[in-house]
Amino acid sequence: xxxxxxxxxxxxxxxxxxxxxxxxxxxxxxxxxxxxxxxxxxxxxxxxxxxxxxxxxxxxxxxxxxxxxxxxxxxxxxxxxxxxxxxxxxxxxxxxxxxxxxxxxxxxxxxxxxxxxxxxxxxxxxxxxxxxxxxxxxxxxxxxxxxxxxxxxxxxxxxxxxxxxxxxxxxxxxxxxxxxxxxxxxxxxxxxxxxxxxxxxxxxxxxxxxxxxxxxxxxxxxxxxxxxxxxxxxxxxxxxxxxxxxxxxxxxxxxxxxxxxxxxxxxxxxxxxxxxxxxxxxxxxx
Length: 286
Ligand SMILES: [Zn+2]
Hints:
Elements: H1 2-31, E1 34-36, E2 43-45, H2 50-66, E3 70-71, H3 75-88, H4 93-96, E4 101-105, E5 112-115, E6 119-123, H5 127-130, H6 133-148, H7 151-167, H8 178-188, H9 202-218, H10 224-236, H11 243-247, H12 252-279
Parallel strand pairs: 4-6
Antiparallel strand pairs: 1-2, 3-4, 5-6
Zinc ion is lined by residues 142, 146, 200, 205, 208, 248.
């Protein structure tokens, strides 16, 4: 009797840290900021404020650019800027006053990303796969959606919660080692260049596809091009998959979701181009 009582007391003590971690996680969950995505109506926990996201996004952006060959002008830069500009005009209000910036990097990498707070990087290697402006609008619409939907901040929350669950306590952003900083960059979406390819969750990928499709349609790009673009990406992912495929695995689920959403997006696109042509009515000379 005495023996088993001692045993169960020991078991109770062993459970104590687990209970404590559970309480910390619960407390953290209820005290963490909730972001309601105005486009989907869904609520998400985010570990960073909009300001913190913008600051981290900016410093990641500057670090990437400082280690890359940035192209300042030319037809490729003009095209990338034009597409990015049109897309950033149709994002929801919550992202309308992001400090949007776009840079083109001279690199064979098939890659593009948008950091939190609206810092876009496009590698020239993706342009032949994009083929045209609508193709580029597909990938940029998708990447921009990761930023407007604040997927980076959601990932940091999930990752920190996981860390707390695993180790017991730590999780604050201060006092970071280089490795931790790079891990954060991976979470924010700029980790590929350090070999830290952290894929977004499947839910975030599908949501970015869905939102990106609407952005491209509203910006006046034919959404049908999105299916063609991702099919090209899948074909491109042969023996040595392009960088963007390690974080954005395209598959038939994504293609079929896009095909399902096409009629709605196509209607949006037709409406948009109708409006655009109304504005463009040439003035007649007598
Ligand atoms: Zn993505």
